[in-house]
Design goal:
This protein has a single domain (about 40-250), classed as 2-Layer Sandwich (Muramoyl-pentapeptide Carboxypeptidase, domain 2). The protein has 10 helices and 6 strands; from the N terminus they run αααββαβααβαββααα. It has helices spanning about 1-5, 15-20, 45, 75-90, 105-115, 125-135, 165-175, 205-220, 235, 240-245, and strands at about 60, 75, 100, 150-155, 180-185, 200-205. It is globular, with a radius of gyration of 19 Å. Bound molecules: zinc ion. Zinc ion (ZN) binds near residues 100, 145, 150, 152 and 202. Zinc ion binds next to strand 4.
């Protein structure tokens, strides 16, 4: 029994548990009657990326003309919108290149575990390692890349977007992406946004990502984050509040 407790991850602290499992009447509940109950559309399994997009009917393979990577997928609705945006940008001499799209739990775990083994972390406390990795990388089970709605464009080097082609691309996205449903997720943190550092490359297809975040907040619990190093720090660091919901204020 003790072993089971030790192996289970993410036992929430009382404050977090109350936030995520509260059964007290919700004063805003009446306002939501007419809205879609998004928690019934996507399961915890799907929201935490435990599936294969290649075998999922709602996902489409991204064509070679749109990406630098083989065998990557997006949700069909998001990909159709992207394709329209790609064509519009192309007409203005801008080439959008998807360098990352859907990443499932296992893929994200691969990224996470590789970083966990970094030489520089020798002697660090787990909580400090987790905080450092979370600068740009999500814990497995908490990434918006699990959802098939979020993409990274052209480069993950912040410097790329500071001048030349990168700046031109970014300025075009800031002006036009919203016309196709896409918004920058992790904007400048000056306005009090928490979580990851600014990512000018990461854009969300909001018509789906909005309701998926609502579903995530309603259904995914800290106990669902397990099977990777440092998973017990998820509740300690309140990753749902600080990171999963640490998106641009206008997107909430
Ligand atoms: Zn990203």
């Amino acid at each position: 029994m003790i072993l089971m407790v030790l192996q289970s991850c993410g036992q929430p602290e009382p404050s977090s548990a109350a936030k995520n499992t509260s059964v007290a009447p919700d004063p805003s509940a009446k306002l939501e009657v007419a809205q879609i109950d998004s928690s019934e559309l996507w399961s915890v399994t799907e929201l935490t990326g435990r599936f294969d997009p290649a075998k999922h009917d709602d996902f489409a393979l991204i064509k070679a003309q749109h990406t630098s990577k083989p065998n990557i997928y997006m949700r069909k609705q998001a990909y159709d919108a992207f394709a329209r945006m790609f064509d519009a940008a192309k007409k203005e001499g801008i080439t959008l290149v998807i360098i990352s799209a859907t990443r499932n739990f296992d893929y994200q775990k691969g990224i996470w575990e590789k970083k966990w083994q970094r030489e520089k972390y020798k002697g660090w406390k787990d909580v400090d390692k987790v905080k450092d990795i979370l600068t740009y990388s999500s814990m497995p089970g908490t990434s918006r890349h699990h959802w098939g709605t979020d993409v990274d464009f052209n480069s993950v080097d912040p410097g790329y977007f500071a001048s030349g082609d990168g700046k031109k691309l970014y300025d075009w996205l800031v002006k036009h992406a919203v016309e196709y449903g896409f918004s920058q997720t992790y904007t400048n943190k000056n306005a009090g946004r928490t979580g990851y550092e600014e990512e000018k490359w990461h854009w969300s297809y909001m018509p789906l990502a909005g309701p998926m975040l609502t579903a995530y907040n309603r259904t995914v619990k800290y106990e669902d984050l397990n099977g990777f190093h440092g998973c017990e720090q998820a509740a300690v660091l309140e990753v749902f509040d600080v990171y999963v919901n640490g998106i641009d204020h206008a997107l909430k």
